[in-house]
Structure prediction request, 256 residues.
Amino acid sequence: MNSPLRDAMARANMTSSRLARVCGVDPKTVDRWLANPSREPHARHRSAASQALGEEETVLWPSAQQLVKSGPDRELVQMYPYRSAAPASLWRQLIRGTARELTFAGYTNYFLWLEHANFGSLLRQKAASGVQVRFILGEPGHPVTRQRELEEGVPLSLSTRIEVTLSELAKLRDTSIEARFETAHVSLSVFRFDDDMIVTPLLPGRIGHDAPMMHLRRAQDDGVFDRFAGHVEDLWAKGRDVWAIPAAEVVDHAQT
Prediction:
């Protein structure tokens, strides 16, 4: 029995007949997928089922990645044309499953508070359990930030979104959670969850949810995962503690 597929169908209230229609196959084919966990659907059918059920293909068919990945690109679990196209459950699974390290190196990290209920409480729980939780933020009003704001041209500015994150983090100052300012990641967001990672390279003039998104899983030394992890550590080493910077200095950036 393919338990992940069965459970995902139950959560989505999806019958075999409905899933078959979505995927363009016979209901008996879906029944065979359920009965035999080693039976791998065609790539287009896996993709359709993944979208319909709100789960990654490699969750529904764990061996699917190994079927097509044998070289350095085996660290690529899944690729999405937009961050908003990823299943909402992916972020929850990664955050909740983290036992050692959570690093949020998005320029604003604003969407995390917006899209995930009780996100602050979850971070507090993770920090209390010994997980290292870090945020790397762009600096409000900084020239790099203002240039990106001009490119985006949206009413809700980067600086405002960063300020929202700072406001939420201020509620967690009694925990071990750390946060630093850095501006070198204005066009590349990296989020680490132990040995899983989400990377979103931002395109000119587009905001975060329009960015392509890669889900990586560490499988080798000095691979793609380690390259991005090294980038994050460089950002952290160069960053400045957000609570150590006088508020007046941040305000000066915005006014100059």
User: Anything to note?
Assistant: The domain at 72-255 is CATH 3.30.870.10 (Endonuclease; Chain A). The longest strand covers residues 132-137. The longest helix spans residues 224-238. The CA atoms of residues 2 and 254 lie 55 Å apart.
